[in-house]
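Ticket #4471: structure output looks truncated?

Reporter: J.K.
Steps to reproduce: submitted the chain below (174 residues) through the standard prediction queue, then opened the result file.
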Amino acid sequence: MKEKAIIMDEKAMARAVQRISYEIIERNKGCDNLCLIGILTRGIHLADRIGSRLEKLEGKKIDIGYIDITPFRDDKNGDNIEDKSKIDFEIANKRLVLIDDVVYTGRSCRAAIDAIMDRGRPLNIQLAVLVDRGHRELPIRADYIGKNLPTSRDEEVRVYVTERDGCDKVVICE
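Returned output as attached by the reporter:
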């Protein structure tokens, strides 16, 4: 697939992360009893960025973890798959913000919720995504969205993050 258009550049991504961070603080009336869980792979970098922003704004340490949804996917056999999740804190009775780069059909979010519930019962789970491209197959809705991007099913949305890809941008490919 070739790049059709750049949807977000580095500055637009930074603004989206900042806006999502402020919205999280407003909705939760601060950051008390809050934790962030990024979905592997690019969701972990977005979770780190949002967590850093929240810590600067609120002056409090935020628990940040990473969840590997591979063993919980409905399109793969989860047997004998190494779980690469890293959650070094208790999630029971916490307000948990699940963070991903793109929400599409909702199946990755469902797998992430299953993986989280295997580890405890949070007070609630909120969803933050950099890009919402529509086309849900499950009743999943993001609470915090960096950019709504209507797409066709033939298009692909790719998110690049500096930590993994050497640059920050969101592109649409055809």
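Triage note (M.O.): checked the attachment and the full token line is present. The longest helix spans residues 10-28.
Status: closed, working as intended.
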